[in-house]
Amino acid sequence: MRRRLVIVGAGPRGTGLLERIAANAPELYAGQGLDIHLVDPCPPGAGRIWRAAQSPLLWMNSHAEDVTMFTDETVRMAGPVREGPTLHEWAGLDGRTFADRQLQGRYLRWVYDRAVADLPADVVVHHHPRRALRISGPRDGRQQVWLEGRPRPLSADAVILALGHLDAELDSEQAKLAAYADTHGLLHLPPDFTADTDLSPIEAGEPVLVRGFGLAFVDLMVLLTEGRGGRYEGDAYLPSGREPVLYVGSRRGVPYHSKIGYDWTGERPPLPRFFGPAEVDALLARPAGFDFRRDVWPLVAKELGFAHYHRLFTDHPERTAVAYADFEEKYAAARTRDEIRALVAGAVPDPADRLDLAALDRPLDGVRHASHEEFQDGLRAYVEADLSRRHDPRHSPDLAVFLALLSVYGQLIRLGGVGPWWHGFFSYLASGPPGPRLRQLLALSRAGVVKFVGADMTVTAEDGVFRAASATVPGFRVEARALVEARLPEPTVGRARDGLLRALHADGAAETPDGLLRVDPADGRILDGAGRPHPRRFALGPYTDGRTPGAFTRPRTGGPAFRQNDATARAALVLLREAACRTAA
Questions:
Q1: Which domains does the chain possess?
Q2: Omega before 255 cis (within 30°)?
Q3: Which residues of 6-33 are buried (b: 16+ CB within 10 A; e: fewer)?
Q4: H or E stretch including 22?
Q5: What is the pTM of this model?
Q6: Rounded to an integer, what distance in angstroms lies between the CA atom of residue 378 and that of residue 297?
Q7: Could you report the per-residue pLDDT of 410-441, keeping only the tens digit for each?
Q8: What does the pLDDT look like over 78-117, one tens digit per residue?
């Protein structure tokens, strides 16, 4: 009897998993026959986010040379390394290009086709362009995966969920705003994937409140400007006349930091140093558990600071006042934030060379402007300074911090359930827009198409309109008939529109206090309320507490998603092999 594996989700995660199955099958599952059923209404490889049917104006936010779907020797995994081309090598692009998402989708399809071709001859892949609705079956027996529009379920020895980003039901605040919009003839666009949002109801010239200043906002900005016929000439934006006026704000009130625009040279910081496997083991061994802010964040902050100052002292010693060996010894011995602050103050003369994570996270805290116009000038100056710094190798400690962020994320996966704040902080510092997008933002601001609202932007619905305000500009208010929530839906189990996840939750799958699906960090098995891993059900992706920075990554950075894919693929193959052996016996 041939074994069956069902993988729900055929985008980058499912594709990466398939690549790892192909790599590990010769060792763990040879010559026994296997049917792999991929369930996804979107095309295999590209999936929903990277599909061809989207605007060619939308870019990736990574250089083409920083995107790979293949493992290398830096990935700590049990399976074999199978190297392959990066996006820029495969496409023949300049490595510093920001490719459009359609091209990335074609790359992902090629990776998928290669993975299928690399499978053993007796392993067959079947794609079902449908949605999975629910999973049934006993813990110790075959699982049944029910598909939309199909009366009979797929029977499976193991099921892996690789769902990627998901739609979500509105939270209580969004539901109230949506209801108010319906009652008063307003437009409320909730969190969504911007490429999927119908923007046609937004009218030319009208003010639009936009809450969110990350990558979803950048997509919105592009589609409502260039997407409506506007164009850039040098540093100027030439409107088409079809653009609305976007009033944008957020919790921080500033856009995500620009992608760094130079390459690493010289010695890398030896990471991990203060937050590695030993520290994670100690946290996991605590009988009473741990608190992220109290117990984990100080270790993370020290790790990021170590990377920053290692680079500053080794590459820019003229900007330091003591010998690095002395500084490193005292830094390692420092136990509190105040001790580190005092040490740095005496060793690094220029405050601009010091790492201040609190100021980075909330740059507008305490900042006040006398007028809306003054704030526009101030925020443009902030963006210009960020662009200058992120493209100047004299500030290469920023790149060292980026490398430390990747290292930290790889360790945090083992802890699980660290909450959404960390993911947002990581994205803000390490996963921001390409520099050219921020230059376009500046041009749009000068043209009056984008206007900045400020930090901790509040939105109220009253008197038949939406109103926005921020303490950054005391007394300023702006009203509009349209409100766009420019951010992705929160990937919580309880509010996911995906019926499969809701059914799993109802069936006893556990969730974290932040609403993420709990999984075993060792191999991705889904945990129940008692902490027991399901023997036949696995899950990978942003809706789990094992979430990673992304399904693909920069070459030679350890790729935590690749490590997860390998561990889950190997666990599933062992499970399938044991099932085949029991049948044979």
A1: 3-168+491-584 (3.50.50.60), 172-256+434-485 (3.50.50.60), 277-368+392-430 (no CATH)
A2: no
A3: bbbbbbbbbbbbbbbbbbbbeebbeebe
A4: helix 12-28
A5: 0.94
A6: 31
A7: 899 888 767 788 989 999 999 999 999 999 99
A8: 999 999 999 999 999 999 999 999 999 999 999 999 999 9
